Structure to design on (632 residues):
């Protein structure tokens, strides 16, 4: 008896998310090609990709290319670039993508599928991604928590993709309320990411401070007010305390971690703040919901980002 | 004809403020002793103090000691330690101060005289200090703007001190509304210091950003609401736009400067945030005035400070 053939998979963007989920698929035997920047392609072509997981350690041989045209022939495309690069990457992708390929956005934020579509006319399916991982070196993915996905709604495409992930040992649910799932994740990201970045704090340090917890609470109240005005059904409307408890729980599970926003800022890289607190500010303005704390966090991260960029470029 | 003798002056704390105003007095011929940390005392004992002003450059010979007891015999004590050290320094000062000495607090914040009194029973007179200066090296004061003082109310003590400053070429007014003057300065400091620190931004970069200007505005509205509840007469109550215009004007005058809070944070030192946005938060809570943006700024600076301290100590 021969196993069914794997779908051919391309991973766009070689950060922690693409590296982890693409790496898991490759490790299970799926034909995966990573498309990323030269430093990444060079390192993994020479050494393979080292999955340094809290559950196992394994070096996986993978194919990699800097050329987006290498996406040709893929049946599933994992769209894992930073949200700041969405529009540009989507435009280029539309020129080379096979017509039947399924594009899954595994990015932070709630409007990625819309933004991909607006830039490229491609119909992407969003996924809610839960993983704590980082890229300590170009050829290494450090995986410290979770590693599961939610797709939706149930249809032949999401079932096809979910089957591949499940076969690779990645928990993958299909939900009829994916938008609520994405917004719930947005609540946590808005609540914790910028505070971790600006306060140079781990999640554990944030919830150890009564003052910081109060800021987190204020952010959550604003995000929930925007979600309510946007008619997104969230489980927290009946009792916002549950949202705050949820944030505290996540923060204690990842107590030693700093947010991706914090990691980007420390490296002088652009953050995804525009898709997190920035999105809430814009959506709030559109719906007439005040979001002063989200606005302050967004603005301070933006200012610090600009400083980081100029510091980096002045080193050249 | 012999000139009248100078009063004997001691300067506590050898930062930019103590260095500049004490240095101006010493340069004019007043007997000044600086009391500071070993690195400062060593440097200025060896080289004198270099006043690198936008108006002149001059190296001034000065006396310096690490021992607070050197304050004995002084008629005027310029109390210039960081507000975080106020209580401890005041307590020690009370043990060695001559009974007739006049203590002038030249610190940031509006409650320094109260805090000195609470810690030591000493009656200090506050001054509103306007100077843009920094300490690029232990023996150097870089002076880039203003350099004037307001004392008050008019009485023999303030007149005695003002006379000494005027004789040394330091503009020094006596005001019957010093508390309003101190609060006005607090408005600027609350509006600009934390944003500069968290956003790693110069004052010029802050006012170049519409978003950052909006944060500055929110902070100012909160501070004015607290001042009003505290019955501090401020000129801005009739038209808060004047306060915002004032902040923008100050920021453009010092466009290339980062706040002292920012400088402290970059060096992993404790900031004075507790006397600035922190004070507004406490006063607001006491008076029932909400101050969410001041609270967020205060909290984020506090978190980042803790990180700075642990980063510095982990280098040991």
């Amino acid at each position: 008896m021969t196993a069914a053939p794997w779908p051919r998979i391309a991973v766009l963007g070689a950060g922690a998310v693409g590296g982890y989920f693409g790496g898991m698929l490759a490790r299970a035997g799926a034909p995966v090609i990573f498309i990323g920047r030269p430093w990444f392609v060079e390192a993994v072509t020479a050494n393979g990709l080292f999955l340094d997981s809290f559950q196992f350690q394994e070096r996986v041989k993978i194919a990699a290319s800097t050329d987006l045209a290498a996406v040709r022939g893929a049946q599933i495309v994992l769209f894992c670039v930073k949200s700041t690069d969405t529009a540009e990457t989507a435009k280029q992708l539309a020129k080379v993508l096979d017509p039947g390929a399924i594009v899954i956005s595994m990015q932070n934020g709630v409007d990625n599928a819309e933004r991909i579509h607006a830039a490229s006319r491609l119909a992407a399916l969003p996924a809610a991604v839960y993983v704590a991982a980082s890229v300590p070196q170009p050829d290494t993915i450090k995986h410290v928590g979770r590693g599961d996905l939610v797709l939706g709604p149930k249809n032949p495409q999401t079932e096809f993709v979910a089957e591949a992930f499940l076969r690779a040992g990645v928990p993958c649910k299909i939900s009829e309320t994916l938008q609520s799932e994405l917004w719930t994740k947005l609540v946590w990201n808005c609540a914790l990411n910028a505070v971790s970045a600006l306060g140079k704090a781990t999640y554990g340090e944030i919830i150890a401070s009564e003052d910081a917890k109060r800021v987190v609470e204020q952010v959550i109240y604003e995000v929930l007010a925007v979600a309510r005005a946007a008619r997104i059904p969230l489980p927290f409307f009946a009792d916002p305390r549950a949202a705050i408890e949820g944030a505290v729980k996540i923060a204690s599970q990842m107590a030693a971690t700093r947010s991706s926003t914090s990691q980007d800022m420390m490296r002088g890289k652009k953050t995804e703040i525009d898709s997190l607190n920035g999105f809430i500010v814009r959506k709030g303005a559109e719906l007439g919901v005040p979001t002063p704390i989200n606005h302050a966090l967004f603005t301070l991260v933006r200012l610090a980002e600009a400083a980081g960029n100029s510091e980096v470029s002045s080193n050249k």
About this structure: The radius of gyration of chain B is 19 Å. Chain B has a mean pLDDT of 94.
